[in-house]
């Protein structure tokens, strides 16, 4: 135990040391060029949150001529920093479920790395976006392609009626957003990777990274999406899954009404729940990753919003606590540790039996919600879409709620 705590202190020291070096690196480059963001209307707090370490978006934007080269360098710095602190991790890898020490092993073991996507949408870099919608999706099998297709045809489709209406709304019409699917690799044995790449070329809306597509690696996928988003001039990211339905214009309206809050970590906040410690449970997290009996309140991964000023914190947090696979709880712990308030968005609904809810919910109740999840299969998404569109756009349906 004595050894353990001195080891911890030692790693803490290494972490501080790395931070000092990286802060110096950032400051050095930053001093050569002022911040690019001149539009301060979104910022309500002070800009002085300089305790963060790697300002990816600033580094990236400082060097527009060599963007990719530079981004690789930043990723490398971050991965080096991480491996310095958790370099023993590969030795810590627990295979299978036999002999798991739930106290002292990293279980389930996450081979964490910052990953740059090999394939990403071509986007006009000078365009400002208010929000990037990052939809985590699967790489293996048709099911996920069908889900993505349904999203492109329903809530992700710019020609849908709710979105056309938003273009006529003074407050919303200039608030740009992009929706991007974030996927890993299926690996050999199937042609899924080829199909996914063809899909990415066709729709220009997918990030594909060298991440083995499985549940444990979700957190790597989550970080890949956030890192990519952070290289744009954005104010928010909204992380979702591919089995949800989101009324994007209503989410934008929420942010307008809330006066573009920063820092902001919002979603359908769960109460503080007990951490599962059962070997081979889907949500099990060992004590070594997280040593409290309960998670703090966090926003479930079906959909949550982060303001972009929190992204650097999130990137640097991997040096403080090794990422575990339930990424939504991990983000909640990070935000708690950084003393960021969590905001519950009442119009977000996460619940079991969503398809049944969608079939049976009354119109007025349906219209109260801006996000529905999870387990919204393509058929339910289309059904919900049809109902929403018919109420929002047809001239002769007026419903009083
Ligand atoms: C990081 O850089 C971006 C882009 O230059 C800037 O808008 C943002 O304020 C910076 N963040 C921090 C925490 O300094
Ligand atoms: C900018 O990019 C170029 C080309 O990739 C590279 O040689 C140079 O070192 C980069 N500068 C910074 C400050 O990262
Ligand atoms: C990129 O976006 C900027 C800002 O909206 C715009 O002025 C420019 O024309 C765009 N470039 C292309 C190639 O679309
Ligand atoms: C978006 O919706 C329009 C109108 O329903 C449809 O023609 C188009 O194919 C959809 N886009 C995609 C990418 O599915
Ligand atoms: C993908 O990652 C694996 C292991 O993480 C590595 O062995 C392989 O070379 C990578 N492939 C590419 C194309 O980067
Ligand atoms: C739990 O972990 C924190 C750091 O992550 C450490 O400061 C604390 O002493 C640990 N508590 C116990 C009971 O091990
Ligand atoms: C968090 O919320 C509490 C209560 O609403 C407030 O007093 C506090 O100032 C907030 N903290 C931050 C950092 O915004």
UniProtKB/TrEMBL annotation:
GO molecular function: hexosyltransferase activity
E.C. number(s) listed in UniProt: 2.4.1.-
Transmembrane portions of the chain: 9-26
Pfam families tied to this protein: Galactosyl_T (PF01762)
Record keywords: Glycosyltransferase, Golgi apparatus, Membrane, Signal-anchor, Transferase, Transmembrane, Transmembrane helix
Source domain of life: Eukaryota
Stored InterPro entries: Glyco_trans_31
Residues in the signal sequence: none
Predominant place of localization: Golgi
Compartments, as annotated in UniProt: Golgi apparatus membrane
GO biological process: protein O-linked glycosylation
Cellular component aspect of the GO annotation: Golgi membrane
Topology class, membrane: Single-pass type II membrane protein
UniProt similarity note: Belongs to the glycosyltransferase 31 family.
The protein's name: Hexosyltransferase
